[in-house]
Amino acid sequence: MAAQPRHVWTEAEYLEFERSNDRKHEYFAGNVYAMTGASQDHNRVAGSTFASLYAQLRNRPCDLFSDNMRVKVQGDGLYTYPDLSIVCGKPQLEDTKFDTLLNPALIIEVLSPSTENYDRGEKFRLYRQIDSLQEYLLIAQDTPRIERYLRQPNHEWLLTEVSGLAATLELPSIQCTLALADVYEKVTFEDMERT
Length: 195
What we know:
The structure is a single chain. 22% of the residues lie in helices and 30% in strands. Strands 3-6-8-9-10-11 form a six-stranded mixed β-sheet, with helices on one face. Strands 5-4-7 form a three-stranded mixed β-sheet, with no helix packed on it. It has one domain (40-183): tt1808, chain A (Alpha-Beta Complex), CATH 3.90.1570. It is an alpha+beta fold. The chain starts with 10 loop residues before the first helix and ends in a 12-residue tail after the last helix. The chain contains five helices and 13 strands.
């Protein structure tokens, strides 16, 4: 028996499906992928990072979004849900629904064992195609460490890594600072001295 041809989703089909579904799905190259849930520490790190940045941005013309805001990469047509995304100035949206952002300045992903390779590799390659994107942060959940990729004027990306609970990280794209002690509030690290 011959295999049935695989359905290739259009972006319009995906958006219609996604907007009527309770679960989140990522879309890329005609394929739809169910997104898995996050661990307790993943949620703590994402929530603490959101709280820290929200407090710094609350009186500025910037919008901070949680993982409920979909981001689209123009061209390759990736639709995904970063853990956090920030736009300063007017958000550009896919359509009249306020659920798909096109112009983030900063994207933050909290690394999970199941997604770390994707977040560092193919996903970052796709994110780099977003013209407005100036910074990309990868936050570990099992150790106090943040990697920041900062777009340079020549479009190369400069990596800065900070670690330890005493460290801070400047975010030039949004003129904020992240203290790792705040990011990892309520997270305990086994067999690790809290420095």
